[in-house]
Amino acid sequence: MGIEVELHSMRPARDWHASRATLLRGSYDLGNALADALGSLHLLGAPGRLAAIDPYRDTVMNEQEAAVALGEIPDLRKRCGDERRRAALDELALLLEACAATPGSHLWFQGD
Predict the structure, then answer these.
(1) For residues 64 and 66, what is the distance between their CA atoms, to the nearest angstrom?
(2) pLDDT digits (tens, 9 = 90+) for 40-56
């Protein structure tokens, strides 16, 4: 199970091929570690935007939601004892920051 994350210039099309037209950048290598880091939040019903990311389904976040989620990263990072999970959260933080700074952009979390 893994979560791939893509930053799009606008809300991505539901069709994967059509969504390539709005793709700005993506994160594909640390998906399993990211799913592990975020999965516990989802299962525990923790509050916040990061907890709303479903590791089994797709989740889309706009730039305002990304700004809120970015503020949740430091606390989650402190709770991660695994270096790979922390690296995945650091990469996610970069994408959240880019999304928050880009009007009209969206992050597409693609769960397994």
Answers:
(1) 5
(2) 776 677 789 999 998 88
- Give, in order, the Cα–Cα distances in Å from 48 to each of 43, 44, 98, 99: 13, 12, 19, 17
pTM above 0.90, yes or no: yes
- In 3D, which of 79, 105, 107 has the Cα closest to residue 92? 107
Q: Tokens representing 60?
A: 């889309």
> Token digits for 30?
């640390």
Residue 60 pairs with which residues in a beta bridge? Answer: 108
User: 80: closest CA among 107, 45, 48, 41?
Assistant: 41
**Residue type, position 42, single letter:** H
